[in-house]
């Protein structure tokens, strides 16, 4: 009898616990639903466009989930042996190296080969200059200064005074007395009151060309100028026209076209300026501009 009473009491307690748990879940669900409903009413009360936008977004999500997915296997094309053989016969591989342009071919034809070790003075493989040694201007050490004992002593003293790093131009470490002294010496050598020292060709062209030629101006440039000059010309935001390398007749033709474009602007107060850009000694080919 005691066992029956105990089982009955346990069953009643379990049923009561289940009822309490279901009641708690129902209460949480009702509270959550009421909070969501209250948020929706407060959020969309005075904003019908937001309601429409989010309804469209929900509809798009449902459509995207339920739409038929693309299957690559359904679009497989089966070719016959004959068709495969025809495609193989018609196929032509792309060249690994593209064909040279006329300008690249000209540069290659003008390339000079050195016979022997590289140095300040070298012998040409073509046997030019009666096979006499010629000065090697393709090297930064064409004057042999790197082998000078006096320069080595000055370099050691400079390193001990200013230190050494991966860069040395004024743009990185600031303007030092050695930079100002070099600018004075360069200005005195070329006969001007002042000079500006740049670290390399890119910084020079990117500073000088956009400084003079602005948006709306015209630049007529030789198509054989170096890459640094090309980038400076393009970044100047000027209207650029190119003429054939060292071709004065083509330069005159391009200038005529530019003048025709400017003919309709004679009545305006300010006219765009025109600049001709070339190199005295071309970096890519070694040609000299016919400035005479």
Outline the secondary-structure elements.
Elements (H helix, E strand, L loop, with lengths): L1 H42 L4 H19 L14 H10 L11 H8 L4 E2 L5 E4 L9 E2 L13 H14 L7 H4 L3 H14 L10 H12 L5 E5 L4 H9 L3 E5 L4 H15 L11 E4 L15
Parallel strand pairs: 4-5, 4-6
Antiparallel strand pairs: 1-2, 2-3
How is this structure best described in words?
With 292 residues, the protein is mainly alpha-helical. It has ten helices and six strands, in the order H-H-H-H-E-E-E-H-H-H-H-E-H-E-H-E. The chain has helices at 2-43, 48-66, 81-90, 102-109, 149-162, 170-173, 177-190, 201-212, 227-235, 248-262; strands spanning 114-115, 121-124, 134-135, 218-222, 239-243, 274-277. The strands form two sheets. A three-stranded antiparallel beta sheet has the order 1-2-3, with no helix packed on it. Strands 5-4-6 form a three-stranded parallel beta sheet, covered by helices on one side. Helix 8 packs parallel to helix 9. The longest helix is centred in the first third of the chain and has 42 residues, at 2-43. The termini are far apart. The mean pLDDT is 80.
Q: What amount of the residues lies in strands?
A: 5-15%
Q: Kindly provide the radius of gyration, computed on alpha-carbon positions and rounded to a whole number of angstroms.
A: 40 Å
Low-confidence stretches: none
Listing every helix as H and every strand as E from the N terminus to the C terminus, the arrangement reads HHHHEEEHHHHEHEHE
Strand order of the largest sheet: 1-2-3
Overall geometric form:
extended
Mean pLDDT comes to 80
**Major beta-sheet overview:** 3 strands, antiparallel
SSE class: mainly alpha
- The total count of strands amounts to 6
Number of helices: 10
Distance between the termini: 130 Å
Q: What percent of the residues sit in helical stretches (DSSP H or I)?
A: 40-55%
């Amino acid at each position: 009898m005691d066992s029956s009473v105990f089982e009955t009491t346990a069953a009643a307690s379990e049923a009561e616990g289940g009822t309490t748990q279901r009641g708690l879940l129902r209460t949480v669900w009702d509270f959550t639903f009421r909070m969501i409903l209250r948020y929706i009413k407060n959020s969309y009360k005075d904003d019908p466009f937001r309601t429409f936008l989010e309804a469209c977004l929900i509809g798009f999500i449902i459509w995207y989930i339920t739409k038929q997915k693309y299957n690559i296997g359904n679009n497989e094309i089966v070719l016959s042996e004959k068709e495969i053989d025809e495609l193989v016969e018609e196929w032509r591989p792309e060249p690994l190296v593209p064909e040279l342009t006329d300008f690249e071919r000209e540069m290659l034809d003008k390339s000079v080969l050195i016979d022997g070790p590289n140095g300040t003075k070298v012998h040409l493989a073509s046997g030019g200059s009666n096979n006499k040694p010629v000065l090697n201007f393709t090297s930064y050490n064409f004057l042999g200064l790197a082998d000078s004992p006096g320069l080595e002593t000055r370099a050691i003293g400079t390193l001990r005074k200013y230190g050494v790093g991966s860069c040395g131009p004024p743009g990185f470490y600031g303007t030092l007395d050695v930079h100002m002294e070099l600018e004075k010496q360069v200005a005195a050598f070329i006969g001007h009151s002042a000079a500006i020292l740049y670290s390399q060709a890119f910084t020079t062209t990117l500073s000088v060309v956009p400084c003079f030629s602005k948006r709306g101006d015209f630049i007529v440039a030789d198509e054989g100028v170096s890459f640094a000059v090309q980038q400076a010309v393009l970044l100047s935001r000027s209207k650029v026209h190119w003429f054939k390398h060292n071709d004065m007749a083509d330069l005159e033709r391009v200038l005529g076209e530019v003048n025709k474009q400017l003919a309709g602007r004679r009545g305006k107060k300010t006219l765009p300026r025109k600049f001709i850009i070339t190199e005295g000694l071309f970096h890519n080919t070694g040609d000299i501009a016919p400035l005479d």
